[in-house]
Specification:
single chain; Rossmann fold; 2 domains; 12 helices; globular; binds S-adenosylmethionine
């Protein structure tokens, strides 16, 4: 069935949203998904969609977007963008879709630095530039380095830096974690892969997002084991490293950080799960 009941009496945006959300039963946010796709089809913000367009005829372009989402493609890959912290990032297949949970790292860093400002920031595994570009938006005088082993992700990061007006303050470089980096930083951010290879994942993640951004050995800790020993030499005096962790990894990653001689604090996400470790 098409999104218009017939040519004379087109389906309204309001009804099309309800019908689309009803097809996204696999999603934790079916209505939000439908609204983001409709806003994209109409070329308006979601806020404007809800205020002004609910009684408009549904655009024909919406139907194809709904089919893609029904195939469990992430909304951000369909619309080509994702809001994160104070910025909008262009994203596509080849880079992890930024997660709201990862904003916990920026919150933790903001609280840690308070009125001080980190001047130099390192983002290990930057993907589409997510954490570095959010931090540079937070601290307009700061500059930083984003490292990733994915050339596709780095191309998106560079494009995002240009679009966000941060290109003069952000350098993106291909690399294997901190190998070859001999500078010290006030803030080191890292959201490495941390899913165990056998762990169950929803099809919209396992089927669409890059495996190299998700999996880190049998217990999901392989990349922390490689990153953590380098943190002491990467941190400037008074500096902090903020690492994202999986909900069950607080004890294991804290132990690695303490073995490296660092003090550890934890920060929880909005769902109450331990999400970020702050190491000083
Ligand atoms: C979970 S994603 C995080 C992306 C982004 N920082 C975010 O928070 O949304 C992990 C990132 O680490 C990168 N990565 C994986 N192994 C790496 C390695 N050995 N060296 C550098 N980057 C790596 C992946 O390509 C991916 O972009």
């Amino acid at each position: 069935m098409s999104w218009t009941d017939d040519a004379a009496q087109p389906r309204r945006v309001r009804e099309a949203l309800g019908a689309a959300a009803g097809r996204f039963t696999f999603s934790a946010t079916p209505r939000l998904d439908a609204e983001l796709l409709m806003a994209h089809a109409l070329g308006v913000s979601r806020e404007r969609l809800l205020l002004r367009h609910l009684d408009d005829p549904a655009p024909h372009a919406f139907a194809a977007l709904v089919e893609r989402r029904a195939d469990q493609e992430p909304v951000a890959y369909i619309t080509g963008s994702r809001a994160f912290w104070t910025i909008d990032l262009a994203v596509g297949p080849g880079a992890l879709v930024p997660r709201a949970d990862s904003e916990t790292l920026i919150e933790a860093a903001v609280d840690h630095f308070g009125a001080r400002m980190p001047a130099r920031i390192l983002d290990l595994g930057t993907g589409p530039g997510t954490l570095l570009l959010a931090a540079l938006d937070q601290w307009p005088a700061a500059s930083g380095l984003g490292v990733d082993r994915s050339t596709e992700a780095l191309a998106m990061a560079q494009g995002n830096a240009v679009r966000l007006g941060s290109a003069t303050r952000a350098v993106f470089r291909i690399g294997d974690w901190a190998a070859g980096i001999d500078e010290r930083f006030d803030l080191v951010l890292a959201n490495p892969p941390y899913i165990g290879t056998g762990e169950p994942l929803p099809p919209e993640v396992r089927g669409w997002e890059p495996a190299g951004a998700l999996f880190a050995g049998a217990d999901g800790l392989d990349d922390y084991r490689r990153i953590v020993p380098d943190l002491p030499r990467l941190l400037a005096p008074g500096g902090a490293a903020v690492l994202e962790i999986g909900a069950s990894q607080e004890a294991a990653v804290s132990a690695l950080l303490r073995q490296a001689g660092l003090e550890v604090n934890v920060r929880h996400d909005l769902a109450g799960h331990p999400r970020a470790l702050i190491a000083t």
